Amino acid sequence: MLDRGPLGKHANVEEGYFMFPKLEGEISPRMKFRGKEVLTWSLNNYLGLANHPEVRKADAEASSEWGLAYPMGARMMSGNTNYHVELENQLAEFVQKESTILLNFGYQGIMSAIDAIVDRRDVIVYDAESHASIVDGVRLHMGKRFVFPHNNIENLEKQLERAQKITDETGGGILVITEGVFGMSGNMGDLKGIVALRKKFQFRLLVDDAHGFGTMGKTGAGAGEEQGVQGEIDLYFSTFAKSMASIGAFIAGNKDIIEYLRYNTRSQIFAKSLPMPLVLGALKRLELLKTQPQLKEKLWVIVNALQSAYKANGFNIGTTKSPVTPVVLNGTVGEAANLAMDLRENFGIFCSVVIYPVVPRGSIILRIIPTADHTLADVEETINAFVKIKKKLDDGYYKEQNLVEFSE
Ligand SMILES: Cc1ncc(COP(=O)(O)O)c(C=O)c1O
User: Fold this and answer.
1) Helix axes 53-66, 276-291, angle to 10 degrees
2) How far apart are CA 158 and CA 134, in angstroms?
3) How close is the Cα of 241 to the center of ligand 1, in Å?
4) Are 223 and 188 in contact (CB under 8 A)?
5) Are 364 and 355 in contact (CB under 8 A)?
6) In this predicted structure, what is the pLDDT of residue 14?
7) Taken in order 73, 75, 76, 81, is the CA torsion positive or negative?
8) Residues of the chain whose pLDDT is less than 50?
9) Which end of the chain, N or C, is less surrounded by CB atoms within 10 Å?
């Protein structure tokens, strides 16, 4: 039997409502869902680049000039161009590293890079809340792996002691993996705490900064820059899927290790290189990251207004230190479905709903992703709606007997 997850049984809704919903119209804070306009808070388009006129123009011109085919083949064989190299150089400079390797997709890229940089003598120590792509990379590892509870530096120290005992015997090394910004909670990885352990242990640090790239740090170089430890990150990973609003990814680090990755990252060696529109589009996006700091400033105006309004109205938004804003409510899966439907159908607000088993039973997280395209009026409208739905939830309105009707 097809398992559509716990929401499927509880919510009396058509397919495509919660799972695989279709947002239509131009990417912006106002899109259409089931034909009706919704205020959209679910896209990682942090800087509003997805529909930026200069980005759209660059994408269109590159597609028209080059098509999607060029270059053919993997980078190593026949798929390299000056533009790929230029993008790598500019990315390296932007994240303050010596060198960069482009990846076609973040997911396969980081998985494959993890696979490439460790062998069976090495030990991986990673944060328990790491993204699936990291977990899958760790799964490929033939040696030992230890997990530390999310951001628990004391426990990390214990895991490093265990790891060191092993590498003392095998002659291998230790790879610590965490994220710059965790996409569910909005917490930053405690990079400062991790690098402080270098006084006692030798390890390499890989940071997945998918959500921090472009949003955090003075120049947008990410969570490492924000915490003053960018130079201590050995391997800095980000995808183009968030702030850059595109496809592709990269890993930056010192020349030697990146050179090693160029010859050993299987997802790149055995795959066609990024097509030109994606490369030229990424160069344009990077130019805007560098030359238009007001995009990040605007994002943070919205983030600060939104997060302080939630707090002022008594909402629990966890311990976020980034634009990712999880609104934590208490309720059953059935209540979550009814509440989310009410929010979408009657208040015209679309955000991602996170339920058991991703979060503990009895918790509902409505994840709000602010962008530079949102306005303070959008924030006000949203907070007003949330105050109302929270009251309804507290009053028991969303218990299963009160299933919300669709207003067609
Ligand atoms: C933390 C994190 N790492 C890796 C990825 C995978 O990146 P991509 O979408 O480029 O495959 C994502 C999702 O985009 C992510 O959120």
Assistant:
1) 160
2) 21
3) 7
4) yes
5) yes
6) 64
7) positive
8) 1-2, 6, 9-11, 406-408
9) N
Query: At 178, which helix (H) or strand (E)?
Result: strand 174-179
- Residue from 123, 94, 108, 310 nearest 212 by CA: 94
DSSP H stretches of helix in 292-332: 293-312
Model pLDDT for residues 155-189, shown as the tens digit of each residue: 999 999 999 999 999 999 999 999 999 999 999 99
349 burial level (CB within 10 Å; 0-12, 13-18, 19+):
buried
Rounded-to-integer distance, Cα 63 and Cα 275, Å: 9
C-alpha to C-alpha distance for 93 and 99, rounded to whole angstroms: 8
CA-239 nearest atom, ligand 1: 10
How open is the CA angle 28-32-33, to the nearest 5 degrees?
125
Distance CA 370, CA 393 (A): 24
SS3 32: strand
Task: Give the pLDDT confidence score for residue 402 in this predicted structure.
Answer: 63
| pLDDT per residue as tens digits for the range 355-378 | 888 888 999 999 999 999 999 999
- For residue 40, the one-letter residue type is T
pLDDT tens digits for range 189-226: 999 999 999 999 999 999 999 999 999 999 999 999 99
H-helix segments, 27-182: 53-66, 82-94, 106-117, 132-139, 153-170
Q: Degrees (nearest 5) of the Cα angle 220, 41, 23? A: 115
Q: For residues 178 and 130, what is the distance between their CA atoms, to the nearest angstrom?
A: 6
Q: Which of 193, 190, 189, 213 is nearest to 201 (CA)?
A: 193
Smallest CA-to-CA distance from 378 within 62, 40, 86, 1 is with 40
> In whole angstroms, what is the distance from residue 238 CA to residue 213 CA?
7
The amino acid occupying position 247 is I
Angle between helices 82-94 and 276-291 (to 10 degrees): 30
Q: Which residue has the tokens 């066609």?
A: 272
Residue to probe by mutation, ligand 1, list 133, 250, 358, most atoms within 8 Å of CB:
133
What is this structure's pTM? 0.95
Angle at 87 between CA 81 and CA 91, to 5 degrees: 155
Pairing assessment for the beta strands 249-253 and 325-330 based on DSSP bridges: unpaired
pLDDT at 359: 86
- Output the ligand 1 site: residues, CB below 6 A: 105-107, 110, 131, 133, 179, 183, 208, 210, 239, 241, 249
At 1 the pLDDT is 39
